Amino acid sequence: MAIKRILIANRGEIALRIHRAAQEMGIETVAVHSTADADAMHVRLANHAVCIGPPPAADSYLNVAAIISAAEVAQCDAIHPGYGFLSENAKFAEIVEAHDIAWIGPKPEHIRTMGDKVEAKRTAGALGLPLVPGSDGAVSDIGEARKIAAETGYPVIIKAASGGGGRGMKVCTSEDQLETLMKQAGTEAKSAFGDATVYIEKYLGNPRHIEFQVFGDGEGKAIHLGERDCSLQRRHQKVLEEAPSPVLSTEQRHRMGEICSKAMADMGYRGAGTIEFLWEDDEFYFIEMNTRLQVEHPVTEMITGIDLVREQIRVAAGKTLSVTQSEVIFTGHAIECRINAEDPFTFAPSPGEVTAYHAAGGMHVRVDSGLYAGYRIPPYYDSMIAKLIVYGRTREKCIMRLRRALEEMVVEGVKTSIPLHQELIQQEDVLNGDYSIKWLEEWLQKREG
Ligand code: ADP
To answer: What is the DSSP letter of 342?
Structure first.
Protein backbone atom coordinates (compact mmCIF):
# COMPACT_ATOMS: atom_id res chain seq x y z
CA MET A 1 0.00 0.00 0.00
CA ALA A 2 1.07 3.57 -0.51
CA ILE A 3 1.23 5.79 2.55
CA LYS A 4 0.08 9.34 1.79
CA ARG A 5 -0.72 10.82 5.16
CA ILE A 6 0.77 9.93 8.54
CA LEU A 7 -0.66 10.78 11.92
CA ILE A 8 2.15 11.43 14.39
CA ALA A 9 1.02 10.19 17.80
CA ASN A 10 3.69 12.00 19.78
CA ARG A 11 5.09 15.41 20.65
CA GLY A 12 8.35 17.35 20.94
CA GLU A 13 11.51 16.62 19.01
CA ILE A 14 10.48 13.14 17.91
CA ALA A 15 7.22 14.39 16.38
CA LEU A 16 9.30 16.86 14.40
CA ARG A 17 11.80 14.17 13.45
CA ILE A 18 9.01 12.01 12.02
CA HIS A 19 7.44 14.97 10.23
CA ARG A 20 10.74 15.71 8.51
CA ALA A 21 11.24 12.17 7.23
CA ALA A 22 7.65 12.06 5.97
CA GLN A 23 7.92 15.37 4.12
CA GLU A 24 11.12 14.24 2.44
CA MET A 25 9.19 11.23 1.14
CA GLY A 26 6.37 13.43 -0.16
CA ILE A 27 4.03 12.27 2.62
CA GLU A 28 1.67 14.62 4.48
CA THR A 29 1.60 14.74 8.26
CA VAL A 30 -1.11 15.24 10.84
CA ALA A 31 -0.04 16.39 14.29
CA VAL A 32 -2.20 15.52 17.25
CA HIS A 33 -1.60 17.59 20.33
CA SER A 34 -2.80 18.47 23.80
CA THR A 35 -3.99 21.99 24.59
CA ALA A 36 -0.60 22.58 26.25
CA ASP A 37 1.17 21.94 22.93
CA ALA A 38 -0.95 24.13 20.65
CA ASP A 39 2.11 26.34 19.99
CA ALA A 40 4.59 23.49 19.54
CA MET A 41 6.85 23.47 16.50
CA HIS A 42 5.67 20.10 15.20
CA VAL A 43 2.09 21.35 15.33
CA ARG A 44 3.07 24.45 13.36
CA LEU A 45 4.98 22.51 10.72
CA ALA A 46 2.62 19.56 10.22
CA ASN A 47 0.27 19.78 7.24
CA HIS A 48 -2.72 19.39 9.56
CA ALA A 49 -3.22 19.50 13.32
CA VAL A 50 -5.89 18.10 15.60
CA CYS A 51 -6.24 18.92 19.30
CA ILE A 52 -6.98 15.68 21.14
CA GLY A 53 -7.34 16.72 24.76
CA PRO A 54 -6.12 18.53 27.85
CA PRO A 55 -2.48 18.56 29.06
CA PRO A 56 -2.27 15.32 31.09
CA ALA A 57 -0.89 12.61 28.79
CA ALA A 58 -3.57 10.17 29.96
CA ASP A 59 -6.20 12.47 28.41
CA SER A 60 -4.31 13.31 25.21
CA TYR A 61 -1.18 11.47 24.03
CA LEU A 62 -2.40 8.24 25.63
CA ASN A 63 -6.03 8.76 24.64
CA VAL A 64 -6.53 5.93 22.16
CA ALA A 65 -10.11 6.82 21.19
CA ALA A 66 -9.22 10.44 20.50
CA ILE A 67 -6.16 9.50 18.43
CA ILE A 68 -8.05 6.94 16.34
CA SER A 69 -10.88 9.43 15.73
CA ALA A 70 -8.36 12.05 14.68
CA ALA A 71 -6.80 9.57 12.25
CA GLU A 72 -10.19 8.76 10.75
CA VAL A 73 -11.39 12.35 10.52
CA ALA A 74 -8.09 13.50 9.01
CA GLN A 75 -8.05 10.48 6.69
CA CYS A 76 -4.64 9.22 7.70
CA ASP A 77 -3.45 5.94 6.27
CA ALA A 78 -0.68 5.36 8.82
CA ILE A 79 0.25 6.16 12.43
CA HIS A 80 3.78 6.65 13.72
CA PRO A 81 3.93 6.42 17.52
CA GLY A 82 7.47 7.77 18.09
CA TYR A 83 8.92 6.59 21.42
CA GLY A 84 7.29 6.53 24.85
CA PHE A 85 3.52 7.13 25.07
CA LEU A 86 1.74 4.42 23.01
CA SER A 87 4.76 3.22 21.06
CA GLU A 88 5.10 -0.09 22.89
CA ASN A 89 1.41 -0.66 23.49
CA ALA A 90 0.50 -3.85 21.60
CA LYS A 91 -3.21 -3.28 22.12
CA PHE A 92 -2.98 0.15 20.50
CA ALA A 93 -1.06 -1.30 17.55
CA GLU A 94 -3.84 -3.89 17.13
CA ILE A 95 -6.55 -1.23 17.26
CA VAL A 96 -4.70 0.83 14.63
CA GLU A 97 -4.43 -2.18 12.32
CA ALA A 98 -8.07 -3.14 12.94
CA HIS A 99 -9.00 0.28 11.56
CA ASP A 100 -7.08 -0.46 8.36
CA ILE A 101 -4.46 2.09 9.25
CA ALA A 102 -0.82 1.09 8.77
CA TRP A 103 1.05 0.81 12.06
CA ILE A 104 4.56 2.16 11.65
CA GLY A 105 6.04 -0.25 14.12
CA PRO A 106 6.64 -3.94 14.80
CA LYS A 107 3.97 -6.61 14.69
CA PRO A 108 1.73 -6.33 17.78
CA GLU A 109 2.64 -9.85 18.93
CA HIS A 110 6.32 -8.94 18.99
CA ILE A 111 5.62 -5.75 20.93
CA ARG A 112 3.70 -7.85 23.44
CA THR A 113 6.37 -10.51 23.81
CA MET A 114 9.20 -8.04 24.25
CA GLY A 115 7.17 -5.79 26.54
CA ASP A 116 7.04 -8.51 29.14
CA LYS A 117 10.61 -8.80 30.29
CA VAL A 118 10.25 -12.40 31.45
CA GLU A 119 8.80 -13.42 28.07
CA ALA A 120 11.40 -11.29 26.31
CA LYS A 121 14.24 -13.02 28.10
CA ARG A 122 12.84 -16.44 27.33
CA THR A 123 12.40 -15.52 23.65
CA ALA A 124 15.86 -13.98 23.45
CA GLY A 125 17.38 -17.13 24.92
CA ALA A 126 15.52 -19.31 22.44
CA LEU A 127 16.78 -17.08 19.61
CA GLY A 128 20.37 -17.60 20.73
CA LEU A 129 21.07 -14.28 22.45
CA PRO A 130 23.33 -14.51 25.53
CA LEU A 131 21.42 -13.89 28.78
CA VAL A 132 22.27 -12.53 32.23
CA PRO A 133 22.29 -15.58 34.54
CA GLY A 134 19.33 -15.73 36.90
CA SER A 135 15.83 -17.07 37.31
CA ASP A 136 14.22 -18.94 34.48
CA GLY A 137 11.14 -16.73 34.38
CA ALA A 138 9.08 -15.13 37.13
CA VAL A 139 9.78 -15.82 40.80
CA SER A 140 7.11 -15.48 43.48
CA ASP A 141 8.13 -18.00 46.10
CA ILE A 142 10.77 -16.82 48.57
CA GLY A 143 12.26 -20.28 48.94
CA GLU A 144 12.76 -20.48 45.21
CA ALA A 145 14.17 -16.94 45.18
CA ARG A 146 16.73 -17.91 47.82
CA LYS A 147 17.78 -20.94 45.83
CA ILE A 148 18.19 -18.98 42.59
CA ALA A 149 20.05 -16.13 44.26
CA ALA A 150 22.42 -18.57 45.95
CA GLU A 151 23.09 -20.35 42.67
CA THR A 152 23.56 -17.09 40.78
CA GLY A 153 25.64 -15.58 43.56
CA TYR A 154 25.10 -12.25 45.32
CA PRO A 155 24.61 -9.42 44.54
CA VAL A 156 21.44 -10.03 42.53
CA ILE A 157 18.98 -7.58 41.03
CA ILE A 158 15.22 -8.02 41.39
CA LYS A 159 13.43 -6.65 38.35
CA ALA A 160 9.78 -6.03 37.47
CA ALA A 161 8.54 -8.07 34.50
CA SER A 162 6.56 -5.03 33.33
CA GLY A 163 9.24 -2.52 34.31
CA GLY A 164 10.51 0.31 32.18
CA GLY A 165 12.34 3.61 32.32
CA GLY A 166 14.79 2.24 34.84
CA ARG A 167 12.08 1.85 37.48
CA GLY A 168 11.20 -1.13 39.62
CA MET A 169 14.66 -2.57 40.21
CA LYS A 170 16.21 -3.57 43.55
CA VAL A 171 19.77 -4.64 44.12
CA CYS A 172 20.15 -7.25 46.84
CA THR A 173 23.58 -7.93 48.31
CA SER A 174 22.82 -10.69 50.81
CA GLU A 175 20.29 -13.38 51.64
CA ASP A 176 18.95 -11.65 54.76
CA GLN A 177 17.65 -8.74 52.65
CA LEU A 178 16.13 -10.91 49.95
CA GLU A 179 12.66 -11.44 51.41
CA THR A 180 12.12 -7.75 52.23
CA LEU A 181 13.39 -6.56 48.86
CA MET A 182 11.34 -9.13 46.96
CA LYS A 183 8.21 -7.89 48.73
CA GLN A 184 9.12 -4.24 48.16
CA ALA A 185 9.88 -4.83 44.47
CA GLY A 186 6.57 -6.65 44.01
CA THR A 187 4.56 -3.93 45.73
CA GLU A 188 6.30 -1.16 43.81
CA ALA A 189 5.90 -2.98 40.51
CA LYS A 190 2.20 -3.50 41.23
CA SER A 191 1.59 0.19 41.90
CA ALA A 192 3.80 1.47 39.05
CA PHE A 193 2.94 -1.04 36.32
CA GLY A 194 -0.16 -2.85 37.59
CA ASP A 195 1.76 -6.12 37.62
CA ALA A 196 3.61 -7.49 40.66
CA THR A 197 5.60 -10.10 38.71
CA VAL A 198 9.34 -9.97 39.39
CA TYR A 199 12.36 -11.98 38.33
CA ILE A 200 15.95 -12.28 39.50
CA GLU A 201 19.20 -11.64 37.66
CA LYS A 202 22.84 -11.59 38.56
CA TYR A 203 23.80 -7.99 39.32
CA LEU A 204 26.76 -7.15 37.14
CA GLY A 205 29.31 -5.05 38.98
CA ASN A 206 30.70 -2.70 36.39
CA PRO A 207 29.17 -3.29 32.97
CA ARG A 208 28.72 -1.04 29.99
CA HIS A 209 25.35 -0.63 28.30
CA ILE A 210 25.77 -1.53 24.64
CA GLU A 211 22.74 -1.88 22.38
CA PHE A 212 22.33 -3.03 18.79
CA GLN A 213 20.06 -1.37 16.27
CA VAL A 214 18.18 -3.94 14.24
CA PHE A 215 15.74 -3.69 11.38
CA GLY A 216 13.48 -6.34 9.91
CA ASP A 217 11.20 -6.38 6.89
CA GLY A 218 8.66 -8.63 8.60
CA GLU A 219 9.21 -11.30 5.96
CA GLY A 220 12.26 -12.97 7.37
CA LYS A 221 14.98 -10.56 6.29
CA ALA A 222 16.80 -8.48 8.88
CA ILE A 223 19.91 -6.36 9.21
CA HIS A 224 21.81 -4.71 12.04
CA LEU A 225 23.15 -1.17 12.05
CA GLY A 226 25.83 -1.65 14.64
CA GLU A 227 25.82 -0.61 18.26
CA ARG A 228 25.43 2.41 20.48
CA ASP A 229 27.19 2.79 23.80
CA CYS A 230 24.78 4.30 26.31
CA SER A 231 26.73 3.66 29.49
CA LEU A 232 26.65 7.27 30.69
CA GLN A 233 23.46 7.09 32.73
CA ARG A 234 21.91 8.76 35.73
CA ARG A 235 19.25 6.78 37.59
CA HIS A 236 19.27 4.26 34.73
CA GLN A 237 18.43 7.08 32.28
CA LYS A 238 20.75 7.72 29.37
CA VAL A 239 22.50 11.10 29.33
CA LEU A 240 24.99 10.86 26.46
CA GLU A 241 25.24 8.17 23.79
CA GLU A 242 27.85 7.34 21.22
CA ALA A 243 28.41 5.12 18.22
CA PRO A 244 30.46 3.11 17.75
CA SER A 245 31.25 1.97 21.28
CA PRO A 246 34.82 2.93 22.21
CA VAL A 247 35.47 -0.61 23.48
CA LEU A 248 34.27 -2.96 20.75
CA SER A 249 36.49 -4.28 18.00
CA THR A 250 35.20 -4.52 14.43
CA GLU A 251 35.18 -8.28 14.84
CA GLN A 252 33.11 -8.13 18.04
CA ARG A 253 30.65 -5.69 16.40
CA HIS A 254 30.09 -7.94 13.41
CA ARG A 255 29.86 -11.10 15.46
CA MET A 256 27.24 -9.70 17.86
CA GLY A 257 25.48 -7.75 15.12
CA GLU A 258 25.06 -10.94 13.14
CA ILE A 259 23.68 -12.83 16.12
CA CYS A 260 21.12 -10.02 16.56
CA SER A 261 20.09 -9.77 12.92
CA LYS A 262 19.78 -13.53 12.64
CA ALA A 263 17.54 -13.55 15.73
CA MET A 264 15.33 -10.88 14.17
CA ALA A 265 15.19 -12.71 10.85
CA ASP A 266 14.17 -15.93 12.60
CA MET A 267 11.49 -14.06 14.48
CA GLY A 268 10.12 -12.38 11.36
CA TYR A 269 10.57 -9.05 13.09
CA ARG A 270 9.24 -5.99 11.30
CA GLY A 271 10.57 -2.45 11.56
CA ALA A 272 13.11 -0.86 13.88
CA GLY A 273 14.17 -2.41 17.15
CA THR A 274 16.94 -2.21 19.68
CA ILE A 275 18.44 -5.14 21.51
CA GLU A 276 20.01 -3.96 24.75
CA PHE A 277 22.93 -5.71 26.38
CA LEU A 278 25.12 -5.22 29.36
CA TRP A 279 28.73 -5.85 28.46
CA GLU A 280 31.36 -6.92 30.97
CA ASP A 281 34.73 -8.64 30.55
CA ASP A 282 34.18 -8.98 26.81
CA GLU A 283 30.84 -10.77 27.27
CA PHE A 284 27.38 -9.60 26.21
CA TYR A 285 24.29 -10.18 28.36
CA PHE A 286 20.82 -9.48 26.93
CA ILE A 287 18.68 -7.29 29.19
CA GLU A 288 15.76 -6.20 27.04
CA MET A 289 14.50 -5.33 23.60
CA ASN A 290 12.79 -2.07 22.70
CA THR A 291 10.30 -2.49 19.87
CA ARG A 292 10.38 1.11 18.66
CA LEU A 293 12.63 3.93 17.56
CA GLN A 294 15.05 4.99 20.31
CA VAL A 295 15.82 8.53 21.46
CA GLU A 296 19.45 7.92 20.53
CA HIS A 297 18.80 6.64 16.99
CA PRO A 298 20.50 9.66 15.34
CA VAL A 299 24.01 8.52 16.30
CA THR A 300 23.40 5.41 14.20
CA GLU A 301 22.09 7.58 11.35
CA MET A 302 25.23 9.71 11.53
CA ILE A 303 27.66 6.82 11.16
CA THR A 304 25.65 4.85 8.58
CA GLY A 305 23.95 7.61 6.58
CA ILE A 306 20.68 5.66 6.82
CA ASP A 307 17.45 7.48 7.73
CA LEU A 308 15.81 5.11 10.20
CA VAL A 309 12.39 6.77 10.13
CA ARG A 310 12.34 6.53 6.36
CA GLU A 311 13.08 2.81 6.61
CA GLN A 312 10.31 2.43 9.19
CA ILE A 313 7.83 4.07 6.85
CA ARG A 314 9.01 1.97 3.88
CA VAL A 315 8.59 -1.27 5.78
CA ALA A 316 5.14 -0.24 7.08
CA ALA A 317 4.14 0.40 3.48
CA GLY A 318 5.16 -3.16 2.60
CA LYS A 319 8.39 -2.21 0.83
CA THR A 320 11.77 -3.84 1.35
CA LEU A 321 14.58 -2.27 3.35
CA SER A 322 16.52 0.12 1.13
CA VAL A 323 19.87 -1.46 2.07
CA THR A 324 21.26 -4.94 2.51
CA GLN A 325 23.70 -5.82 5.29
CA SER A 326 26.73 -5.54 3.01
CA GLU A 327 25.63 -2.02 2.02
CA VAL A 328 25.69 -0.84 5.62
CA ILE A 329 29.04 0.90 5.99
CA PHE A 330 30.14 2.36 9.30
CA THR A 331 32.24 5.51 9.08
CA GLY A 332 33.47 7.85 11.78
CA HIS A 333 32.04 8.54 15.18
CA ALA A 334 28.91 10.24 16.52
CA ILE A 335 27.89 11.47 19.97
CA GLU A 336 24.47 12.62 21.16
CA CYS A 337 23.86 14.85 24.18
CA ARG A 338 20.36 14.85 25.61
CA ILE A 339 19.61 18.42 26.58
CA ASN A 340 17.02 18.68 29.33
CA ALA A 341 15.27 21.70 30.80
CA GLU A 342 16.61 21.09 34.28
CA ASP A 343 19.12 22.37 36.75
CA PRO A 344 22.54 20.95 35.75
CA PHE A 345 23.44 20.40 39.41
CA THR A 346 20.24 19.42 41.21
CA PHE A 347 18.43 18.00 38.16
CA ALA A 348 15.23 19.77 39.23
CA PRO A 349 12.99 20.35 36.17
CA SER A 350 13.00 23.88 34.81
CA PRO A 351 9.98 24.45 32.56
CA GLY A 352 8.96 27.93 31.42
CA GLU A 353 9.50 30.40 28.62
CA VAL A 354 12.55 30.18 26.41
CA THR A 355 13.50 33.83 25.99
CA ALA A 356 16.35 33.29 23.53
CA TYR A 357 17.32 30.31 21.42
CA HIS A 358 20.13 29.64 19.03
CA ALA A 359 20.90 26.17 17.75
CA ALA A 360 24.48 25.10 17.07
CA GLY A 361 25.26 24.59 13.40
CA GLY A 362 28.07 23.94 10.99
CA MET A 363 29.44 20.83 9.40
CA HIS A 364 28.28 17.50 10.88
CA VAL A 365 26.19 19.12 13.62
CA ARG A 366 22.55 18.14 14.01
CA VAL A 367 20.06 19.56 16.49
CA ASP A 368 16.75 17.76 16.87
CA SER A 369 14.51 20.11 18.80
CA GLY A 370 11.22 21.92 18.66
CA LEU A 371 12.55 24.93 20.56
CA TYR A 372 12.22 28.54 19.43
CA ALA A 373 12.48 31.90 21.18
CA GLY A 374 9.21 32.62 22.95
CA TYR A 375 8.27 28.92 23.28
CA ARG A 376 6.93 27.93 26.67
CA ILE A 377 8.17 24.52 27.81
CA PRO A 378 5.13 22.93 29.42
CA PRO A 379 5.60 21.34 32.85
CA TYR A 380 3.55 18.24 32.01
CA TYR A 381 5.96 16.13 30.00
CA ASP A 382 9.49 14.80 29.81
CA SER A 383 12.15 17.47 30.36
CA MET A 384 14.19 16.65 27.24
CA ILE A 385 14.01 19.72 24.98
CA ALA A 386 16.76 19.06 22.44
CA LYS A 387 19.25 16.54 21.21
CA LEU A 388 22.61 17.70 19.95
CA ILE A 389 24.23 15.14 17.70
CA VAL A 390 27.70 15.60 16.33
CA TYR A 391 29.78 13.58 13.88
CA GLY A 392 33.53 13.38 13.40
CA ARG A 393 35.83 11.16 11.37
CA THR A 394 37.40 9.99 14.59
CA ARG A 395 36.19 10.02 18.20
CA GLU A 396 38.70 12.75 19.04
CA LYS A 397 37.46 14.99 16.22
CA CYS A 398 33.88 14.28 17.22
CA ILE A 399 34.59 15.41 20.80
CA MET A 400 36.33 18.58 19.60
CA ARG A 401 33.34 19.40 17.43
CA LEU A 402 30.93 18.60 20.26
CA ARG A 403 32.80 20.98 22.53
CA ARG A 404 32.50 23.71 19.91
CA ALA A 405 28.81 22.99 19.28
CA LEU A 406 27.88 22.99 22.98
CA GLU A 407 29.60 26.37 23.25
CA GLU A 408 27.38 27.70 20.44
CA MET A 409 24.05 26.52 21.82
CA VAL A 410 22.00 29.28 23.44
CA VAL A 411 18.91 28.44 25.48
CA GLU A 412 17.89 31.29 27.79
CA GLY A 413 15.03 31.67 30.23
CA VAL A 414 15.22 28.14 31.59
CA LYS A 415 18.03 26.08 33.09
CA THR A 416 19.44 23.34 30.89
CA SER A 417 21.83 20.43 31.13
CA ILE A 418 24.23 22.03 28.59
CA PRO A 419 26.77 22.93 31.34
CA LEU A 420 26.66 19.33 32.57
CA HIS A 421 27.58 18.06 29.11
CA GLN A 422 30.34 20.64 28.81
CA GLU A 423 31.82 19.46 32.05
CA LEU A 424 31.35 15.80 31.20
CA ILE A 425 33.32 15.91 27.98
CA GLN A 426 36.29 17.45 29.80
CA GLN A 427 36.64 14.40 32.02
CA GLU A 428 39.62 12.21 31.32
CA ASP A 429 37.65 8.97 31.62
CA VAL A 430 35.07 10.22 29.13
CA LEU A 431 37.82 11.37 26.78
CA ASN A 432 39.36 7.91 27.03
CA GLY A 433 36.01 6.15 26.63
CA ASP A 434 36.76 4.53 29.95
CA TYR A 435 33.42 4.40 31.73
CA SER A 436 30.77 1.93 32.87
CA ILE A 437 27.09 2.42 33.76
CA LYS A 438 28.24 3.38 37.27
CA TRP A 439 30.65 6.10 36.19
CA LEU A 440 28.32 9.08 35.90
CA GLU A 441 26.65 8.64 39.27
CA GLU A 442 29.99 8.20 40.98
CA TRP A 443 31.34 11.29 39.28
CA LEU A 444 28.25 13.30 40.25
CA GLN A 445 28.73 12.24 43.86
CA LYS A 446 32.35 13.36 43.80
CA ARG A 447 31.32 16.63 42.17
CA GLU A 448 28.89 17.32 44.98
CA GLY A 449 31.79 16.74 47.35
P1 ADP B 1 14.34 -0.47 31.88
O2 ADP B 1 13.39 -1.14 30.94
O3 ADP B 1 13.65 -0.01 33.13
O4 ADP B 1 15.17 0.58 31.24
P5 ADP B 1 16.58 -2.38 31.78
O6 ADP B 1 16.44 -3.82 31.98
O7 ADP B 1 16.83 -1.89 30.38
O8 ADP B 1 15.31 -1.62 32.42
O9 ADP B 1 17.74 -1.84 32.69
C10 ADP B 1 18.02 -0.45 32.80
C11 ADP B 1 19.38 -0.24 33.39
O12 ADP B 1 19.49 -0.87 34.68
C13 ADP B 1 20.53 -0.83 32.58
O14 ADP B 1 20.96 0.02 31.54
C15 ADP B 1 21.57 -0.98 33.68
O16 ADP B 1 22.11 0.30 33.95
C17 ADP B 1 20.78 -1.42 34.90
N18 ADP B 1 20.69 -2.89 35.00
C19 ADP B 1 19.70 -3.69 34.51
N20 ADP B 1 19.96 -5.00 34.73
C21 ADP B 1 21.13 -5.06 35.39
C22 ADP B 1 21.96 -6.15 35.90
N23 ADP B 1 21.60 -7.42 35.78
N24 ADP B 1 23.13 -5.80 36.51
C25 ADP B 1 23.51 -4.50 36.64
N26 ADP B 1 22.78 -3.47 36.19
C27 ADP B 1 21.61 -3.71 35.57
So the answer is: B
From 116, 229, 278, the mutation candidate for ligand 1 (largest count of ligand atoms within 8 A of CB) is 278
Which structural domain range is residue 223 located in? 208-448
State the CATH number of the domain containing residue 406: 3.30.470.20
* Distance of alpha carbon 20 from alpha carbon 10, whole angstroms: 14
Ligand 1 contacts CB of residue 276 (under 6 A): yes
120 lines ligand 1 (CB under 6 A): no
**Which residue's CA is minimally distant from atom 20 of ligand 1?**
287
> Would you give per-residue pLDDT tens digits along the chain (449 residues)?
899 999 999 999 999 999 999 999 999 999 999 999 999 999 999 999 999 999 999 999 999 999 999 999 999 999 999 999 999 999 999 999 999 999 999 999 999 999 999 999 999 999 999 999 999 899 999 999 999 999 999 999 999 998 887 777 899 999 999 999 999 999 999 999 999 999 999 999 999 999 999 999 999 999 999 999 999 999 989 999 999 999 999 999 999 999 999 999 999 999 999 999 999 999 999 999 999 999 999 999 999 999 999 999 999 999 999 999 999 999 999 999 999 999 999 999 999 999 999 999 999 999 999 999 999 999 999 999 999 999 999 999 999 999 999 999 999 999 999 999 999 999 999 999 999 999 999 999 998 87
Structurally, the chain folds into a number of domains equal to: 3
Is 292 a residue of the active site? Answer: yes
> Across the chain, how many H-helices and E-strands are there?
15, 20
56: exposed, middle or buried (Cβ count in 10 Å: 0-12, 13-18, 19+): middle
- From the list 208, 228, 253, 292, the catalytic residue is 292
